[in-house]
Structure formats: structure tokens, C-alpha cells
Design brief:
The protein folds into three domains: about 80 residues, Winged helix-like DNA-binding domain superfamily/Winged helix DNA-binding domain (Arc Repressor Mutant, subunit A); about 60 residues, Arc Repressor Mutant, subunit A (Orthogonal Bundle), CATH 1.10.10; about 140 residues, Up-down Bundle (Four Helix Bundle (Hemerythrin (Met), subunit A)), CATH 1.20.120.530. By secondary structure, the chain is mainly alpha-helical. The chain has a three-stranded antiparallel sheet.
């Protein structure tokens, strides 16, 4: 992949984070910080930042570096338009094939290059991303292995029931400690999500914000095993949720409930926040359970399981 192509991808990713509030107005962006987060070198990051400065999303201050512009949100929609396509379709094609069992558990790089007609650079980029998101790993010696993800409705339900078991309890840990900065950041992200145009934001970014909220709160338990467990199950369900249709009404309800939990924590009502978290997860499970998502091996579209057990395609 050329440096300019990679810098375009980084530019779009930064723009997405600005659009969803993950990067706040006025927030400082260091080239090394961004490079570490995205797993790239600093050269394409600098190119991306220079471009975003030209587009008005970032501002540069002498001897201080780049900051998110106060008017950045005005320019984001154009940068996230179709003309900025970055190969996400190729990544999703691989993910879909794994979800619907079109791929074996273990593959060689030669097999993937022949199947998808990818260059070596593109194949490596997509596999590295899959590894970073937790559903692929390089085998010792040769080839790649795809890891288990939530491919069925029952697995999806089990994940939510597991979350109901650990997330409320984590708030009641004796080591649980409120962090005002974490709560303020999550409040800002959730409030900005309520104000944004969801149609202009990639589904994966909206879902990542939801996962981040829960992971940030469970980290306040100061028990690393809670966080590791939640991160793992979030990775396992991520692919399936990315492919489901985003329901904007439910997304608004989710953000509102997140803010209620933040309110309770900020006021010191940790026990009530724990109970509200369980209600929140229970409600999410009930909203998702009636639609038992399976996947059509023919089309790759989700199937809705009816009351009689038969499946119909949802488009």
C-alpha cells in the first residue's frame, strides 16, 4: 500500500473519531500517539494530519502540534462520503465469509490471495486489522487461524448474560473508584451521539462507542480480569453486530440509559448505578433476543428466526 493510500485511511479514521466524539474539540493529537493507536509509522500519520489541517478538522499550533478544530464537525460529513471509500468492503467481505462459514478455520496467505485476488500488501493490511480486532491470529510458522466469534443467536444471548453477571458486580468491587475524567469523557461522547446525524457515521464507529462506554466503566473496578473478560466478549460479538441493521431509536435509548448511569455514578450512588447497569443490559438482551440472528450462507444477509423456528431473510 502506498503512503498516500495509508494516510487517506488514517485521515478518514481520525475524521470518524471526531464525528462520534471520541476525539473532542480542542483535544491534542500527537503523531506518535496516533501511530501507536493505529499500528502504523509516523510518516503517514503526519501526512494525514496535514491533510486534515487543510480540510479544517485540525489546527496546528507552533511548538505544540495538532489539535481538533472547534469547528471540525462542520467538515466531517464530506470526508466520510463515498468518495473516501477505504477498502472497508474488502475487510467486511472477509468477515462475512467467516461469519457464514465460507472459510476454513485455518488458511494460508496464498489461499486468501487467490480467493479474493488481493495484493500481498492489501491481504496483510486486512489480516492485521482482523488480528487487532480479535478474530484472527497468525499461526506459529505458517498461515493464519480465524478465532471463534458470536455467529449464532444463542452465542449472542450467552454473551449478554455473561455481561449481566460481571458488569454490575464490577461496580460493587471494594477497589471500585470513581474517575471524574472518565465519566466526563463518556458523558460528552454520549451527549454528542444524541445530537449527531447517525446516517453520516459508520455503524462500526457507533458500536465501538457503546463498547468503549462499558469497558471504561468496568475498568474503574481496578480489577483487570473484569476488563479483560469484557474486552474479549465484545470482540466476539463485534462482527455480528456490525452486520445487523442499526436501529436509531434503540441507539438513542442506549445513549440515554448510558447517561443515566453516569448521573448515578457522579452523584455517588454506585449501588443504584450497578442496578441500573443490570437493567440496561437486560433490556438490551430482550430487545435483541426476539430477532434471533442467523446468517444465510447464500447471500450473507441476516435471517430472522420466526416463532415457528423457520428463518426468513431480513434485508
Amino acid at each position: 500500500m502506498s503512503s498516500s493510500e495509508l494516510s487517506n485511511r488514517i485521515s478518514k479514521r481520525i475524521a470518524q473519531e471526531i464525528s462520534t466524539g471520541s476525539l473532542a474539540k480542542g483535544q491534542h493529537l500527537g503523531a506518535q500517539q496516533v501511530a501507536d493507536r493505529y499500528g502504523v509509522s509516523r510518516t503517514p500519520v503526519r501526512e494525514a494530519m496535514q491533510f486534515l489541517e487543510e480540510q479544517g478538522l485540525l489546527v496546528r499550533e507552533a511548538n505544540r502540534g495538532y489539535f481538533v478544530s472547534e469547528t471540525a464537525s462542520n467538515n466531517v460529513p464530506e470526508l466520510l462520503s463515498d468518495k473516501w471509500a477505504t477498502g472497508a468492503d474488502d475487510y467486511q467481505m472477509l468477515a462475512d465469509d467467516w461469519l457464514v462459514n465460507r472459510l476454513p478455520e485455518e488458511v494460508t496467505e496464498q489461499f486468501l490471495r487467490q480467493k479474493y485476488d488481493w495484493s500481498k500488501a492489501k491481504m496483510n493490511e486486512i489480516l492485521v486489522r482482523a488480528a487487532r480486532e480479535g478474530w484472527a491470529e497468525r499461526k506459529e510458522g505458517y498461515g493464519w487461524r480465524f478465532l471463534p466469534v458470536a455467529k449464532t443467536a444463542s452465542a449472542f444471548d450467552e454473551i449478554y448474560r455473561f455481561r449481566m453477571a460481571i458488569e454490575p458486580v464490577a461496580m460493587l468491587e471494594p477497589t471500585f473508584e470513581l474517575d471524574r475524567k472518565v465519566l466526563e469523557k463518556q458523558r460528552r461522547i454520549q451527549e454528542e451521539m444524541l445530537e449527531m446525524d447517525f446516517s453520516a457515521v459508520p455503524a462500526e464507529r457507533l458500536l465501538e462507542n457503546g463498547s468503549l462506554f462499558h469497558e471504561e466503566l468496568i475498568s474503574l473496578s481496578r480489577n483487570p480480569f473484569f476488563l479483560m473478560a469484557l474486552q474479549r466478549v465484545n470482540r466476539m460479538r463485534r462482527l455480528m453486530e456490525y452486520r445487523a441493521e442499526i436501529n436509531h431509536e434503540r441507539l438513542i435509548e442506549q445513549c440515554t440509559e448510558h447517561l443515566e448511569i453516569v448521573d448515578l455514578l457522579e452523584s455517588g450512588n454506585v449501588v443504584d448505578a450497578s442496578y441500573r447497569m443490570r437493567q440496561h443490559l437486560s433490556g438490551a438482551l430482550k430487545r435483541k433476543s426476539p430477532i434471533a440472528w442467523e446468517w444465510s450462507s447464500d447471500t450473507g444477509h441476516p435471517l430472522e428466526t420466526n416463532a415457528n423456528g423457520s428463518a426468513s431473510q431480513k434485508v
